[in-house]
TrEMBL record:
Protein name (database record): Hcy-binding domain-containing protein
Ranges for domain Hcy-binding: 13-334
Species in which this protein is naturally found: Rubroshorea leprosula
Binding site for Zn(2+): 252, 319-320
InterPro entries given in the database record: BHMT-like (IPR017226), HCY_dom (IPR003726), HCY_dom_sf (IPR036589), Hcy_S-methyltransferase (IPR051486)
UniProt-recorded Gene Ontology molecular function terms: S-adenosylmethionine-homocysteine S-methyltransferase activity; zinc ion binding
Length: 336
């Protein structure tokens, strides 16, 4: 166990980090969908977590691509990595736990490689003197119970009455403990679809004495509520009340809904707000395909960042179907 951070120290952890980044931080982009762009077949109940044993070199490569694109925070390949999911594939409990740790090890390794390269190739980077000293955090991704169901349920948030608060806490408990002690800088609870799961995470962080900070990031498909229909204000208030939570926001949501959601979150918290939307396409959980929508391409998405910043967000990145190109665009926009 580390030394542990108290509530006030956790808050200064993120404000110190944002200060070092120049006030605004860049989060990476879509991870699983980027593995797919590199040819991985993720039509599997483990989705991107499959790559932890089938192609760890590609996991490292995608992390490096996002670092090269300007990311200050990289998220591990653990979104759909659950002990229950690995066991269903025939791994032992010990092997499953080792794979969770491995997701953090690969991201830390990519950060080391990136830093070494920056210092060795410093001549190439002279134009941008900040690059070698750019702060980089590794965030351990935790996807929802709906992600584990592997049918796109994180976009409905409806788990049925049998999946109670206690069931959710027990489902996530061991994974959260392992990731908290894996060397990650923070835990990213991502694509949270409903209020009960946010409550489960908040209680787990306290009950288990988790001593690294966390962020809570919700998903919406209407710009008003989270996908289950629960109010975004109520969900963000749960995050606001938990002193282990250092930032609150929205991910894997179409770009056009982000501005209104930032304004709603701002009403209930003064914690930093993070946004990392998807490309605006729609996921079919049965075929695991993305369907085109009217939303524009990367360029349009990046042009929204200024408005999101004016509305009060301070961490920006991309989720499914965004690419290193999106992240390059965001980095550039934030520097101007
Ligand atoms: C955020 S969704 C695109 C993740 C994948 C989903 N849990 C599935 O396995 O189909
Ligand atoms: N960090 C995950 C989130 C999926 S919604 C990914 O980018 O694959
Ligand atoms: Zn996503």
């Amino acid at each position: 166990m580390g030394l542990g951070l108290g509530g006030a120290e956790k808050m200064s952890f993120l404000s110190d980090f944002l200060g070092k980044c120049g006030g605004y931080a860049v989060i990476d982009g879509g991870f699983a969908t980027e593995l797919e762009r590199h040819g991985q077949d993720l039509n599997d109940p483990l989705w991107s977590a499959k790559s932890l044993f089938s192609s760890p070199h590609l996991v490292r490569r995608v992390h490096l691509d996002y670092l090269d694109a300007g990311a200050n925070i990289i998220l591990t390949a653990s979104y759909q990595a659950t002990i229950q999911g690995f066991e269903a594939k025939g791994f032992s409990t010990e092997e499953a736990e080792a794979l969770l740790r491995k997701s953090v090890e690969i991201a830390c390794e990519a950060r080391e490689i990136y830093r070494d390269r920056c210092s060795k190739d410093s001549w190439d980077y002279m134009e941008n003197e900040n690059i070698a000293s750019r702060p980089v955090l590794v965030a351990a991704s935790v996807g929802s119970y709906g992600a584990y169901l592997a049918d796109g349920s994180e976009y409905s948030g409806r788990y049925g009455d049998s999946v109670s608060l206690e069931v959710l806490k027990d489902f996530h408990r061991r994974r959260v403990q392992i990731l908290a002690e894996s060397g990650a800088d923070l835990i990213a609870f991502e694509t949270i679809p409903n209020k009960v799961e946010a409550q489960a995470y908040a209680e787990l962080l306290d009950e288990e004495g988790i001593d690294i900070p966390a962020w809570f990031s919700f998903t919406s498909k209407d710009g008003v509520n989270v996908v289950s229909g629960d109010s975004i204000e109520e969900c963000a208030s749960i995050a606001d009340s938990c002193d282990k939570v250092v930032a609150v926001g929205i991910n894997c949501t179409p770009p056009r809904f982000i501005l209104g959601l930032i304004q709603s979150i701002r009403k209930v918290t003064s914690k930093p707000i993070l946004v990392y939307p998807n490309s605006g396409e729609t996921y079919d959980g049965q075929t695991k395909q993305w369907l085109k929508s009217e939303e524009g391409a990367d360029e349009d998405f990046v042009s929204y960042v200024d408005k999101w910043r004016d509305a009060g967000a301070s961490l920006f990145g991309g989720c499914c179907r965004t690419t290193p190109n999106t992240i390059k665009g965001i980095s550039k926009t934030l520097k101007t």
